[in-house]
Design goal:
By secondary structure, the protein is of the alpha+beta class. It contains three helices and seven strands, in the order H-E-E-E-E-E-E-H-H-E.
Length: about 130
């Protein structure tokens, strides 16, 4: 988790997702990636989920009190029809975060609060109506 938080502030992050997990976490087997049209999440033994950037209506982070020995930060990307969920330790999560932070009115202050949380909470980092700035 600390390595991931440090990566938030590293300006020289690669854009491409690596084929092999860069973490010892079992959650690194989950892969997320994106292009200019869509974002995907692929859990082992499941079909990849995807959503179009144009349909994205919200970005949230859910924290739990279960860390640090199990995943305690979950990302949710929502459209009107579905939600793509992935763990913060997913391969490619850092690169995807960098892209999410390019969304106008993305709330980085709320992200910092979420990354500091050790309790069961949800943090809305962006919504299409700009209610959570």
């Amino acid at each position: 988790m600390i390595k991931w938080i440090k990566s938030l502030f590293n300006k020289d992050r690669p854009i491409a997702v690596q084929d092999t997990p860069v973490s010892d976490s079992p959650y690194a087997a989950v892969k997320v990636w994106f292009d200019e049209d869509k974002v995907w999440a692929h859990w082992p033994d499941k079909e990849p989920q995807s959503i179009a950037w144009s349909e994205l209506i919200g970005v949230a982070v859910e924290t739990t009190d279960q860390g640090p020995f199990v995943e305690d930060v979950w990302w949710h990307l929502a459209t009107k029809k579905e939600v793509v969920t992935y763990p913060s330790e997913a391969t490619g999560a850092g690169e995807l975060l960098q892209r999410l932070q390019e969304i106008p009115t993305f709330n980085n202050e709320c992200l910092i609060q979420a990354m500091s949380s050790t309790s069961n909470q949800s943090f809305i980092l962006w919504d299409h109506e700009g209610r959570h700035r």
